[in-house]
């Protein structure tokens, strides 16, 4: 899938959940992580018709950004067409996972795992919604379940939108990707260039430490995918960033 990098303009301060977009603005993309123990009050990520983006960063706090109208349309197309969400249904995905479980003997039940719910507004104005249990774990467990893999791709795409916003926008993400590439190439000259599109996760901690993860799908030169290349950058107050690399068919060695 083409991974268009969305330029996000970061509003420097987190805003409380009570601050809502104007009433005339409607969501066009939402991602929810739904737990049986504590149903969420707000989506994990929402993109609105005016280009506004809001991501949940924990403790009732949100970060806001903005996309151009073209970027909003491109994101809708990526999810509905490239990830094929428009032809997927939640019951069909569940049946596919059950069949993969029966064939492999591996359970599909992951206790206390969240359901991922992705909602995308279609051209006719109606929402198309897909829901799937434990997407990341089951996608790794059942690689032949194509519908599940497409939902996983869609989730990763939206997590990338969130992560780029969390680090401060596209320019900051580009700087981090270049730093990580330079650092790892000192040990692994064959490492491909990392990009903001590879940014997968950001975790911030009360002591000021920030953990940033890039993830790049890899192959062995054939159609067969191998373990993804995962590069982490750990930033701690008063210390230089620490870069670590995992997977990637031995590129780290």
Can you give a write-up of this model?
The structure is a single chain. The chain is built from five helices and eleven strands; from the N terminus they run E-E-E-E-E-H-H-E-E-H-H-H-E-E-E-E. By secondary structure, the protein is α+β, with helices and mostly antiparallel strands. It has two domains: 15-167, no CATH class; 170-247. Strands 1-5-4-3-2-6-7 form a seven-stranded antiparallel beta sheet. Strands 8-9-10-11 form a four-stranded antiparallel beta sheet. Strand 6 (115-121) and strand 7 (127-133) form a beta hairpin. Helix 3 packs across helix 4. The longest helix has 22 residues, at 146-167.
The overall pLDDT, averaged over residues, is: 86
Weakly predicted, low-confidence segments: 1-20, 249-253
Q: In terms of structural class, how would the helical and strand content be classed?
A: alpha+beta
Main sheet: which strands, in order across? 1-5-4-3-2-6-7
Helix content: 25-40%
State the end-to-end distance. Answer: 28 Å
Number of strands: 11
Query: Secondary-structure element order, as H and E?
Result: EEEEEHHEEHHHEEEE
Largest sheet: 7 strands, antiparallel
Strand content: 25-35%
The coarse overall form would be globular
Please describe the topology of this protein.
Layout: E1 15-16, E2 27-34, E3 45-48, E4 52-58, E5 61-66, H1 69-82, H2 90-104, E6 115-121, E7 127-133, H3 135-141, H4 146-167, H5 170-185, E8 199-204, E9 210-219, E10 225-235, E11 242-247
Antiparallel strand pairs: 1-5, 2-3, 2-6, 3-4, 4-5, 6-7, 8-9, 9-10, 10-11
């Amino acid at each position: 899938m083409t991974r268009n990098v969305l330029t996000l303009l970061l509003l420097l301060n987190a805003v409380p959940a009570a601050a809502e977009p104007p009433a005339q603005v409607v969501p066009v993309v939402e991602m929810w992580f739904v737990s049986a123990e504590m149903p969420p009050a707000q989506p994990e990520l929402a993109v609105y018709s005016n280009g506004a983006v809001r991501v949940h960063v924990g403790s009732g706090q949100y970060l806001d950004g903005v996309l151009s109208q073209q970027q909003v349309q491109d994101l809708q197309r990526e999810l509905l067409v490239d990830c094929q969400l428009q032809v997927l249904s939640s019951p069909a995905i569940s049946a596919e996972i059950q069949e993969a479980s029966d064939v492999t003997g591996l359970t599909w039940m992951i206790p206390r795992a969240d359901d991922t719910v992705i909602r995308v507004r279609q051209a006719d104005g109606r929402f198309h919604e897909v829901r799937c249990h434990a997407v990341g774990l089951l996608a790794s467990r059942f690689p032949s379940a194509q519908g599940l893999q497409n939902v996983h791709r869609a989730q990763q795409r939206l997590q990338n939108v969130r992560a780029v916003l969390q680090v401060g926008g596209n320019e900051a993400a580009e700087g981090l990707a270049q730093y990580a590439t330079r650092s790892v190439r000192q040990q692994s000259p064959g490492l491909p260039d990392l990009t903001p599109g590879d940014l997968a996760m950001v975790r911030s901690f009360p002591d000021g430490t920030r953990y940033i993860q890039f993830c790049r799908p890899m192959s062995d030169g054939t159609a067969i995918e191998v373990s993804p290349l995962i590069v982490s950058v750990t930033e701690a107050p008063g210390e230089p960033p620490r870069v670590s690399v995992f997977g990637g068919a031995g590129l780290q060695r």
